[in-house]
Amino acid sequence: MTTDVVSRRRSRRRTAVLILPFTLLATALAAAGVVVAYLLWPTWPTAIVTLDAPALPITVAGVLFNVPPMAIRAAVQRHPGAHERVDLVFLWPSLDPPQPAGKGAERPASEPAAAAGDEAAGMPSYAKDRVFVTIAGLGAVLPPVERLRSIYPRYLEEQATAGPDGLGVQAFRADTPYQGEDLVYRAEKPEGFFARCTRKIRSVPGNCMHERVLEGAEITLRFPREWLDDWRGVADGFDRLIALLHPRNG
């Protein structure tokens, strides 16, 4: 009996000696994992960006933009770095960011919500001098020109009508996802300029959505339909705005 007990005690000691290094190694690995997770864990910027600060370097879908903080509609988006999307507003035709009503003021509550699907929302009357811009990753969505060529024709009425200054206007059928909208395009070269536009309903003005692609980012510009009377000037203004946001030498 005594020999048996001594043998068991020696066996336990040997097992403890063998387990100890593995325990220490596991503890060290766990500690290292905690340190690495702490260093790599994404953190939200704590510094507050003032509205009058210089343009922020913002990337969307890997594309760099220089964005004035005063043009950013949502305070939560006013920080440099990578964004999934950013929502902006500019005065027209100056392309300056609108001045806040007071120091640190947010956008007026009556301004259209910056959210997916708001392209059909009616703009308040003061927005007639504003262009609303959304920059987001294109992702798996077809580029606008491809939609113009392969998607929109499936849903359009057969007959087109003449619009202002060489534009063509073609209504989407009522039983389609774009019912209530018109496709407005440069008749001689649709890829050169085109937009989807809602129609004026009583006191609610019609609005248009023009889309462009810049590498992996899609830029959506929303503006009043009445601007189409000078669509060439609108197209030139959009060129200038995109050049301000994404300088070629940037």
Structural notes for this entry:
It is a single chain. By secondary structure, this protein is α+β, with helices and mostly antiparallel strands. It folds into 2 domains: 1-41; 56-245, no CATH class. It has helices at 2-40, 144-151, 231-245, and strands at 56-60, 63-67, 81-83, 85-91, 130-137, 156-162, 167-172, 181-186, 194-198, 207-214, 217-224. The strands form 2 sheets. It has an 8-stranded antiparallel beta sheet with strand order 4-5-11-10-9-8-7-6. It has a 3-stranded mixed beta sheet with strand order 2-1-3, with no helix packed on it. A hairpin with a 4-residue loop joins strand 6 and strand 7 (167-172). The radius of gyration is 29 Å and the shape is globular. The model is unreliable at 103-122 (pLDDT under 50).
- Got a strand count? 11
Q: What percentage of residues falls in helices of 4 or more residues?
A: 10-25%
Strand-and-helix sequence, N→C?
HEEEEEHEEEEEEH
The computed structural class is alpha+beta
What is the CA-CA span between the terminal residues?
A: 85 Å
Chain-averaged pLDDT: 82
Question: How would you characterize the largest beta sheet?
Answer: 8 strands, antiparallel
Unreliable residue stretches: 103-122
Number of H- or I-type helical stretches: 3
**Structural domain count:** 2
Lateral strand order in the biggest sheet: 4-5-11-10-9-8-7-6
Radius of gyration: 29 Å
What fraction of the residues are assigned to beta strands by DSSP?
25-35%
Shape: globular
